[in-house]
Write a structure and sequence with these properties.
By secondary structure, the chain is mostly beta strands. Helices cover about 5% and strands about 60% of the residues. It has a twelve-stranded antiparallel barrel with strand order 1-4-5-6-7-8-9-10-11-12-13-14. Keywords: Signal.
Length: about 240
Amino acid sequence: MNNKLKQLFIALPFTLLSTTAAANWSTTITAASDYTFNGVSQTDSDPAIQASLDYAFDNGVYAGIWASNVDIIGLDDIDFELDAYVGRFMQLNEQVSLDYGIAYYTYQGDSSDFNYGEAYTKFGYASDYGQTELNFWYSWDYFGSGAGHVISQIAHTYELAPNHALRASFDISNSLDGKKYAWDSNEKKSYNHYRLAYKTSYEGFNIEVAAENTSLDYDYTDERLVLAVSRTFNL
């Protein structure tokens, strides 16, 4: 993706925001004990402050930006992540939903070589036993490496009681070119990520406590507990 296309994609949510007044604005502020991405700490196991600005049309189309501090191992010159996304959520019937779109991840610092785009598709199925998800993400230039990358995830959320839920998820991150992007010294092309989260809310704040681990063997990918507290404001 050339620089002009990158600039266009990052500016697209702002362009949409200015096109009509018939949309719903919201912002979410999050404080987390760690920022993990597919089980890998993006803050060297330190806390993160994150914020999003979102814009939703009545037909399910949405756009937004999301930001967080980062401290990624091996990328000492990068301390801030800013992402943009555009998508559409559709409720196909009472049980089945579809969410699809495209996102662009940027890493702010002395180098922009790690910026990349990603397409995603998420399927949801609601039943008496909770919400089941089947989600997919595809990048054609993962972290600027020129390698394709696919994440496949299955997740289920079960309501324990009103305002109390558990979400269990399992995903596989798979590099389509292990010679360009391998996960360890043995040039493994994939790794697994496991996560179990308890979700609740109190006085308008959403609270999540998650236990997660990966099949990788690094300090920043090992088992950990992550606490996140967030609040969404309608603007």
